[in-house]
């Protein structure tokens, strides 16, 4: 799961990003409203954690513009303003949840988990399910009905991307952005290497990661593959 964290307080944002990454989230950082909005508009994020008070462009304005442009990514709004009117303004602008500073990291993590469950993915607790696979993205482990398979952090992010988008073709460029982040200097050939790693580890009777020549990859049910071949 890839998150965008937009907060100008680096003393808060950098440790939060570290904690999120330790919990196996992919995280990109922005320290001002304009940069955060530009990154959010790429549409590569599963969730946005957005501070309200930002330089260049205030968080609520960023949120309004994202919603006006059809970006419906769940947004958790962070703020030091705790009046009822302030909360109503943020929620009316399109925020999905509201967290008042200062807050505990445990509460932040709980709210992020709750928002991820609201997106409509097929989840059991905090696990993702697709084609007979059950992925624990926080534990970096997948079960195929017979075996439990340990994954590396990047392998887990990659498999989660496929399982959250079953039967959808995902380009190499999209994979690079979602798994490695917008600022990464990793080359497209790394995607091919990690696809190889996943295929080698996961030999399911129910699904496979198929190459769509000239486009990218797709997690397909084997019955669907058989019908199309």
UniProtKB/TrEMBL annotation:
GO terms for cellular component: cytosol; protein-DNA complex. SMART domains: REC, Trans_reg_C. Gene3D superfamilies: 3.40.50.2300, 6.10.250.690, Winged helix-like DNA-binding domain superfamily/Winged helix DNA-binding domain. GO terms for molecular function: phosphorelay response regulator activity; transcription cis-regulatory region binding. InterPro entries: CheY-like_superfamily, OmpR/PhoB-type_DNA-bd, Sig_transdc_resp-reg_C-effctor, Sig_transdc_resp-reg_receiver, WalR-like, WH-like_DNA-bd_sf. Residues 124-221 bind DNA. Residues 124-221 form the OmpR/PhoB-type domain. One of its GO terms (biological process) is regulation of DNA-templated transcription. The modification 4-aspartylphosphate is found at residue 51. It comes from the Bacteria. Keywords: DNA-binding, Phosphoprotein, Transcription, Transcription regulation, Two-component regulatory system. May play the central regulatory role in sporulation. It may be an element of the effector pathway responsible for the activation of sporulation genes in response to nutritional stress. Spo0A may act in concert with spo0H (a sigma factor) to control the expression of some genes that are critical to the sporulation process. This is Stage 0 sporulation protein A homolog. It comes from Desulfosporosinus orientis (strain ATCC 19365 / DSM 765 / NCIMB 8382 / VKM B-1628 / Singapore I) (Desulfotomaculum orientis).
């Amino acid at each position: 799961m890839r998150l965008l964290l937009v907060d100008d307080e680096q003393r808060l944002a950098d440790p939060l990003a570290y904690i999120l990454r330790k919990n196996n989230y992919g995280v990109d950082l922005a320290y001002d409203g304009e940069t955060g909005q530009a990154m959010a508009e790429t549409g590569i994020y599963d969730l946005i954690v957005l501070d309200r008070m930002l330089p260049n462009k205030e968080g609520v304005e960023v949120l309004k513009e994202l919603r006006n442009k059809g970006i419906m990514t769940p947004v958790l709004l962070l703020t030091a303003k705790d009046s009822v009117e302030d909360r109503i303004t943020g929620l009316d602008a399109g925020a999905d949840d509201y967290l008042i500073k200062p807050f505990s990291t445990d509460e932040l993590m709980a709210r992020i988990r709750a928002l991820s469950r609201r997106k409509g993915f097929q989840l059991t607790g905090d696990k993702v399910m697709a084609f007979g696979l059950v992925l624990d993205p926080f534990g970096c482990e997948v079960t195929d009905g017979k075996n439990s398979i340990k994954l590396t952090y990047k392998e887990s992010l990659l498999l989660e991307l496929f399982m959250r988008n079953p039967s959808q073709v995902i380009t190499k460029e999209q994979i690079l952005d979602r798994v490695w982040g917008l600022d990464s200097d990793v080359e497209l050939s790394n995607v091919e290497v990690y696809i190889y790693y996943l295929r080698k580890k996961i030999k399911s009777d129910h699904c496979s990661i198929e190459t769509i020549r000239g486009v990218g990859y797709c997690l397909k049910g084997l019955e669907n593959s058989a019908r199309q071949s």
